[in-house]
Design goal:
This protein has one helix and six strands, in the order E-E-E-E-H-E-E. Helices cover 8% and strands 62% of the residues. Strands 1-3-4-6-5 form a five-stranded mixed barrel. The termini are far apart. It has one helix at 55-62; strands at 4-13, 17-18, 24-38, 41-54, 69-78, 85-93. Strand 2 (17-18) and strand 3 form a beta hairpin.
């Protein structure tokens, strides 16, 4: 299973682009910060992650300001170069 669910904040947004099939695509950098429990200890997690959204999700995110916080669901894939991870956003929840 490859499913990611988290809250994040937009810290960088590129210009909207379109795939060869005409589908809107938006490249982003997101920031996530939370506290989780690991081995019965609280652990603070803070990370930046590259992400991409396609179609209506891309259009919705393109209307949001940098700094907007939202919940998302997606999956992890490789970057175009094959080096590193890319979060593919498939659903948005609670855009603030």
């Amino acid at each position: 299973m490859n499913r990611v669910q988290l809250s994040a904040r937009i810290i960088e947004r590129k210009s909207m682009r379109y795939t060869p099939a005409g589908v809107p695509a938006l490249d982003l950098v997101l920031e996530h910060e939370s506290t989780v429990t690991e081995a019965q200890q609280a652990r603070k997690v803070k990370l930046d992650i590259k992400a991409v959204a396609l179609g209506p999700v891309a259009e919705q995110l393109n209307r949001q300001d940098t700094g907007a916080t939202f919940g998302l669901v997606g999956f992890l894939g490789a970057t175009r170069t094959g080096r590193g991870l890319l979060l593919h956003i498939t659903e948005l929840n609670d855009i603030v």
